[in-house]
Structures are given as structure tokens and as C-alpha cells.
Amino acid sequence: MRIGFDAKRAFYNRSGLGNYSRDTIRILAEHYPQYSTFAYTPGPGEEGLFIPPQTCQVRQPSSAFYKTFSSVWRSYGIGSDLDRDAIDLYHGLSNELPLGLSSGKIWKVVTIHDLIFMRHPEYFKPVDRWIYRQKFTYAARKADAVIAVSRYTAKDIIEILNIPEDKVHVVYQGYNAIFAQEPGRESLRLIKEKYNLPDAFILAVGTLERRKNQLSVLKALWEGKMNMPVIMIGKATAYKREMEEYIDRNKIPGVQFLHQVPTADLPMIYRQAAMVVYPSLIEGFGIPVLEAVVCGTPVITSADS
């Protein structure tokens, strides 16, 4: 079997969708070496972020037009490349499928991670909601099989998108094997020095955005008069500024923000934390909770994570 993957997120995205894409491609190549795998990406992405398995062939747009307008290639032009590579099954790893794939010629699978933009539209711009609705709905209806990363997401796909239940399959996210590897003392020491980690701290991992609700961690510590350093790891959004204003207004010490932390460093940061706090208001899966548990670090999370 020849399997093609929409690998854009694997090459460009450090957070959840990127981790899922990298792990899915890697795990399938490791456990099913008899399959030929192809990773389709609009470009090389961030250097060193994803090193595909040796058995996986990487494909990028070949024409000057599609190199310039890579989003057009990913949504419309990729079909001819899939035909050229004689792909049997194409897996859209991040909520979408290209338009116009040959019906019946290529099996189509899509992973839908969540429908938060429909459950909680207040977290999204109107134009983004419209685009997501078009893409997600098209992918779920055109796919031969829909993968949901949790029962919660599967329920939403069936109820909100009106997809037949027998077409939706729950396949939980895995974790990178490095989170299960026990690091040596020297490795832990080097990471502690690299990030200037305190001896004891609370850790929060995830994009710094309103629905992740990290500000509640700061409020709980301040109002509860708990004096423990906090380290927050994740991509910054405008929500970070709101947290910084709260920190400045209340003169809260010991809060550190880290961005673009390599995946290889995360397990050793998890292991040195006193606890991980994941107060998200809504999640499709919430992989930092799983990563923390694998590292043996206690987790406090919300009922909706």
C-alpha cells in the first residue's frame, strides 16, 4: 500500500497538530515498513523540526506557480501529484482534505481534532469560523473514514456535522517515545541551567491563548498567596499581554515564559516540575496532560480538558 500524508503541520507547527502529524507518520513507518509512505508539504518548513523516517519520501510543489501559491497546491493541485505517485490512501492529518480527489481511486481519511470553533465561537474571528466550517464539513463528508482523537470529539462530529456514526473512529493520540525515556542526572542538570529553572516550580504547557485559561493559574496563586515560581511554555498570542499586565499590576514574582522549546527538552522540564497545571476551558484531547503523566509528574487539570 502507498500512503500519502498531508504533512504541512509536521514541518511547520511545533504544537499539537504538528506533534500529531510527526508522530503519526513516524509510528506508521516504524510499525508498517512494508507500506510506502509519502509526506506532502508546501515547503521545507522550520529547519530540524521534522526529520522524516528514511522510508518516507517527501514531496513539495514542483511548478513555479504552486511554489509561489503553495496553499492553492495543497487545496487543489495536489491531486495530480497523488495520482503520479500512485497513492492508494491519503490521510489529512489536520482537519482537512484537498478538493477534487479522484472518487473511488484514492481512499480518503481525515483526522478531526476538535470542533471548538463551533462549540465556542467566541474564541475565533468570524472569518476563521467560516473557513473552518467549510473545510471541516467538506473533509468529514468526503472522507471514507473520519478519525477523532477522543470520544468527545467523535460525539461532536456525529452531532454537529451530521456524520454517520459508523464512519467515525476514535483513535487516541499517542506520545513521542522520548517522554518515556528516563534521562540521566547530567541531562537534567544541563536543561535546568539552559532554562534557568528553579528548584521547584509549577509548569503549564500549551499555546498562550484565552481558551487555555493560563491566567487562572496566576490568579489562583496570587489570591491563594502561594509563593511558587511558574513556567509557561507555548506560542504567544495577544492573551500573553493580558497575563503580563496582571503580573505587573500585582507584582507577582517568578513567572517565566518560554517559547519554541525543542521537543527533546520538554521531558526533562516536565520531570523537574513540582506539578503540571492544565486549566483549559475546552479541548479535543489535551496532549500535555498525557505527556506529564508519562513523565511521572502530577497533573491538575479541568474537567473539560
Q: Would you write up a description of this structure?
A:
By secondary structure, the chain is an alpha/beta fold. 39% of the residues lie in helices and 16% in strands. It has helices spanning 8-12, 16-31, 64-68, 70-84, 116-119, 126-142, 151-160, 185-194, 215-223, 238-250, 266-272, 287-294; strands at residues 2-6, 36-40, 56-59, 89-92, 107-112, 145-148, 168-170, 202-205, 230-233, 255-258, 275-278, 299-301. A seven-stranded parallel β-sheet has the order 3-2-1-4-5-6-7, with helices on both faces. A five-stranded parallel β-sheet has the order 10-9-8-11-12, with helices on one face. Helix 8 (185-194) packs across helix 11.
What does the secondary structure layout of this molecule look like, with pairings?
Layout: E1 2-6, H1 8-12, H2 16-31, E2 36-40, E3 56-59, H3 64-68, H4 70-84, E4 89-92, E5 107-112, H5 116-119, H6 126-142, E6 145-148, H7 151-160, E7 168-170, H8 185-194, E8 202-205, H9 215-223, E9 230-233, H10 238-250, E10 255-258, H11 266-272, E11 275-278, H12 287-294, E12 299-301
